[in-house]
Amino acid sequence: MVIFCLVAVSTLHxxxxxxxxRGDASRSLQADDALLRERQLKSDSIxxxxxxxxxxxxxxxxxxxxxxxxxxxxxxxxxxxPRLNQIVARYSxxxxxxxxxxxKTYQLVKSERLNIVNxxxxxxxxxxxxxxxxxxxxxxxxxxxxxxxSCRAITYKYTDNxxxxxxxxxxxxxxxxxxxxxxxxxxxxxxxxxxxxxKLWMKIALYTNREKQIIKNIELLPQEAxxxxxxxxxxxxxxxxxxxxxxxxDFIEDLATPNSDNIRGDIALTKNELELAYGHFRLALKRxxxxxxxLERAIPLSWLLEQWxxxxxxxxxxxxxxxxxxxxxALETALRIRKGQYDKSQANLRYLEEKxxxxxxxxxxxxxxxxxxxxxxxxxxxxxxxxxxxSFDGLNCWIADQLLVWDDLTKTVKRTDKVxxxxxxxxxILAESSNxxxxxxxxxxxxxxxxxxxxxxxxxxxLQ
Length: 464
Fold this sequence. Notes:
The protein is mainly α. The protein has helices spanning 2-63, 67-77, 85-98, 102-109, 117-134, 144-154, 164-173, 188-191, 195-207, 211-216, 229-241, 245-252, 258-270, 274-287, 292-304, 308-315, 325-339, 342-355, 362-375, 378-390, 394-405, 409-412, 426-432, 448-455. Helix 2 runs antiparallel to helix 3 (85-98) and helix 11 (229-241) runs antiparallel to helix 12.
């Protein structure tokens, strides 16, 4: 009996201890689970902050026109991001559109998952404009009309001109040029209702090279329209493009705007007045420092007029249609070479060589050769002149030949003293020997008069 009681007490004690251990273990597991959840939430929060930062930086890069940088941030997010995939697709499509890769743009935004309302209104214009650019040969071209109707309806709240430009672009890509605004005289009852509508019509006319339509209907403009600066600029452009620069100048004579300065610069270019044209474009940039029209004209003029510093400054502002970082850096390097900045030019050329993986075009090889010559880099000069010579550049073939003659051509070409003072030029030799030269006298062997007498018909030869 005693033994039984001891066993019972021992069992009960063991059960109590086991229950206590299980409670401790349970509490420990709960604490560990809470700690894991806390760590996971913290990790998710950090990842979310990183994702939002990358997305924000991609957006800023797109706004700055730096599509390559934007794409690097978007690649870090990934196109299959669980929460941001729609935004990533839209930003990627916008980057492709900015690079004129319209097929890629369309592929990125054509997905059915983007047709939900909150996503569709953000991408429908990109989808529509990429189809416009791809043209009639694209298999989805037939979708333009229904896509246009859907996009127009969902984005109607964002337009204050009834999608004038979008409608006009649709008309153009469908080849219905005669249906563009202004094709019928009755259209002007709506087109000329106010200054904004008038400017829209004039802009679409200029965009489609129908400036003569503007001039033809100029008498329909109300008198107050001529007080609008924008309308006068457009009239000036219409007359300039129609070949009447004098009339164009009359319309913009007293205007102080970037557009009027650009037109005046274009007029000066037609007269080959390069300095005057350059001044007008610089003035346009002073009024609007990112005027693309002014930049595209002022940059080549800065080269022609040898304004090297201005050219470098202007290139830094250019983000136009032909934006190519490699080409712009090459042009900047050429300007710096002309300015004598060989250290910076050498650094630029080294970067370009790495960027182009050693397959730099001839223009860059010529710059590398010249800078190496000026910097005294004999090893690089031998390499670059040989490459340029293989591309049939005569001057670098001569340099490669001279490198075999002179110990250090980079020092020889910089010598200012005469190579051989004792040597006389051909002019000096001729000048010194001029007194020793006597005229050559003709020695008459047969008198010409005897020949003439023999040829005369009066001479009769007697046969023996």
